[in-house]
Amino acid sequence: MTESGPIRVGLVDDQQLVRAGFRMVIDSQPDMSVVVEAADGEHALRELTRVPVDVVLMDVQMPNMDGIEATRRLAGLEQSPKVVVLTTFDNDEYVLAAISAGASGFLLKDAQPEELLDAVRTVYRGDAVIAARSTRRLLQHVGPILAGATPVDRPQLPEALTKREVEVLEAMAHGLSNSEIASKFFVSEATVKTHVGRVLSKTGSRDRVQAVVFAYQAGLVRPEDLLRG
């Protein structure tokens, strides 16, 4: 349970069986509850402007309005929920577009129930990239797209970033959680959170996932680095 009650979850997917399966897993937990279901982006926007939601699990490819446009519009709301993109490996470009539109993370549709629940809690807290193992696997696929910007378009690492902040950003891009980063650099999690906050501010990133995208586009991390990891 959170201080304000269960985490309120919205499910947006055009496959009823997928929604039913996710609802069963989520509603089995005392600290979260499905409060909205929708079969496409248009329906989702109507419901999500009416019912307060903390985290939305958003499919990408849907009729009427896809998940990318729905995510973009949700990001523009004053009280916007955090969006987790539901994906498979065959639509990596859609995933990147959705994250650029404001999604806070991504989850593989074939994830285990424990990964789904961890993803909802993680993105609700906002303090870690979703499911490091899944993040790592997916970044191996979207990494080449993220790193594909031309030198002219490639962003530069801000000079204001300290050496340690660059190291933390690189660790974030490899899918490490705050606790894993703390262990890697022999510091406390509180110190890591401070570094992450400064990285987000200095790179102009809305959240941790946006910072990871920035790290790839800036060339700090390359797809082959993950393959070796």
Automatic annotation (TrEMBL):
Keywords: DNA-binding, Phosphoprotein, Transcription, Transcription regulation. Transmembrane segments: none annotated. It comes from the Bacteria. The modification 4-aspartylphosphate is found at D59. SUPFAM superfamilies: C-terminal effector domain of the bipartite response regulators (SSF46894), CheY-like (SSF52172). Residues 154-219 form the HTH luxR-type domain. Residues 8-124 form the Response regulatory domain. This is Response regulator. It comes from Rhodococcus kronopolitis.
